[in-house]
Amino acid sequence: MEDYIVRLVVLGVISWTIAFVAVRRMLPNRSFNFCNRLVSTVHATLAVILSVLTVEDWRCPVCPLASRSSPKQMKTLAVTLAYLIYDLIFCLLGDKRINLDNSIHHLVSIVGIGAGLFYEKCGSEMVASLWITEMSSPFLHLRELLKELGYRDTDLNLIADMLFAIIFTVARMICGPFLTYVTLSASNPLLIKAMALGLQLVSAFWFFKIARMVKYKMTKRTKSKAAA
Known about the structure:
The protein has 8 helices and no strands. It is globular. It has helices spanning 3-26, 32-54, 71-94, 100-119, 123-134, 137-151, 155-185, 190-227. With 228 residues, the protein is mainly α. Helix content is 82%, strand content 0%.
């Protein structure tokens, strides 16, 4: 791994931490989780933008496969690696109840991105994976932010739920399996292949949880309308 990437990751962890502290000071009456989700929303938006900017050929966004990562790709991945390290630590320290599946997702992502930066390979596939996984994240955080702002069980919260569910499904259950297939098919290091498969399995697990959430929300809404 290049020295400048290591420095960027360390600087990134410090920067994300400072951003969280700044948000906490600006919003002292909001919860730890609320402030952390605001930082997470900034990261998700930044990750999607940086991922788009690293695409070399829009006719084939994941090309060239199994190739040496470009400096742009490595910097983009380093920013997200720093965020994931920050977020894992803060979630473990701040949450009263540890979210096991979220922790596993973070660990798989950290190991996967770390391996990609170490081998300096498969940057196209990893940046595409970053774009896929972060596309739905702003809506994931929005639905939780709205609840704390007093919009639980409102039409606005339902719209955020549906947008999150739709984007997650398209990104992770349609684009995700294709990207996993090309990553496994290409001559990538075994560790990166394992992490790609692991991330897709975590996504599938979350998909079923989200499907249950949507079913519950729609059933609850139908019953509420019937009662009215």
